[in-house]
Amino acid sequence: MKITFLGTSSGAPTKQRNLSATAVQPEKGKPWILIDCGEATQHQLLRTPLSAQKLEAILITHIHGDHCYGLPGLLASCQLGGRKQPLTLVGPAAVRDFIEAVISTTQLYLEYPLHFIEVSQELSVSAAGFAISAVPLSHRTECWGYRIEEQDVPLQLDVERLRREGIEAGPTYARLQSGQDVQLADGRLLRSGDYTQLSRKPRVAVIAGDNDTPECLAAACERADLLVHEATYTEAVLKQVGPEPQHSSAARVARFAEQAGIPNLILTHFSPRYARTTRRPGDHSIREIHDEAGQYYSGQLALAEDLGGWLLSRQGLLLPL
């Protein structure tokens, strides 16, 4: 599973950071999915190997502009690029209203099928080799987090059992391992599920939208290898700003990830006030976010950077690309 950050700023872009957009793709193959689509996401795509024509689904966490203003341009560029295959768009109902308004007022014409699915707790979508579900979050508008679980993990064959039952190696083994049931010449029916198991644990990433209560993700994070969550502020700045924006601090997310036993944590969606380098006394450094989270979290911690990529390995390790 590969994660590429196309935008990591909150509210407004900076010279170093675009607005929220995160790409997820399988370890092999070109299909991918996109979580959120802030303004100028399609410009960021031009700086990556990702192809808009191989995009299978867009998952929008909420209707705030820094998470969806890039949608019309990306959809239009897919049309201009000759896209024919369907594209799935998941999000709150307001996202559909937004796109329909843009289509009706700007003469945007899409020849490819755009399938909108209103997000709910019953969401069950498959795209780019992933099973996708959703969990509601706590923000000042309807907002969601997405659990992305790897599908099609190879099966491991129980060869010893087959041999004990007098079934020799051959085409039967291959069919069972591919998930097919087999009817033998002697009348026995071999069910693949009885002779196989997953060769490894499916990789799971949870990617959240804006959220002031990380505990909302407790159920979604069970067996998760990675949590990607906003850390818009440090705790001190969050207390100065007040609760109205309904964002999280690095400390709050880190404490949750530690308590939930999540082995890998990537923080993103940073306030523009946190710069990579500071020039004047009193300026805030992005290092403050990392240092605060590190006080409460003992797993592998990373801060997202625009165009930075990570591989979640088959062993559940987070490796920079």
Describe this structure in words.
With 321 residues, the chain is of the alpha/beta class. The protein folds into 2 domains: 2-153 and 200-320, Ribonuclease Z/Hydroxyacylglutathione hydrolase-like (Metallo-beta-lactamase, Chain A, 4-Layer Sandwich); 155-197, no CATH class. 24% of the residues lie in helices and 27% in strands. The chain is built from 10 helices and 21 strands. The chain has helices at residues 41-45, 65-68, 71-80, 93-106, 159-164, 171-177, 192-195, 235-241, 250-260, 287-294, and strands at 2-7, 21-25, 32-35, 55-59, 87-91, 114-118, 125-127, 130-136, 144-150, 155-157, 182-183, 189-190, 196-198, 204-208, 226-230, 264-268, 274-275, 284-285, 300-303, 309-312, 318-320. A hairpin with a 7-residue loop joins strand 8 and strand 9. Helix 9 packs parallel to helix 10. The relative contact order is 0.14.
